[in-house]
Amino acid sequence: MTTVLASTLSGKPVLSTNGEKLGTIENITMNLASGELEDVFVAPAKEVPTATARAFETTDDGTLIVPAGCMRDVDDYLLIERPDR
């Protein structure tokens, strides 16, 4: 995957590899020592399929926590693969 500035990720749409709209990037977490991205916090879309939403951990308010290892590509949107695939 290409190098991307973290500041360009906020508000970017998030899609699954099978075309489901998951929501938009709300926040990220990084390892400060290594500079590596750890997780992406996604404000869920209203129509996120239940099975897809359950594939990820969530915060108390329902925000999806997507591990960086699930990221496949980033351009006009962030493409992710469910961890159970």
Automatic annotation (TrEMBL):
Gene3D superfamilies: PRC-barrel domain (2.30.30.240). InterPro entries: PRC-brl_dom (IPR027275), PRC_barrel-like_sf (IPR011033). Pfam families: PRC (PF05239). Residues 1-82 form the PRC-barrel domain. This is PRC-barrel domain protein.
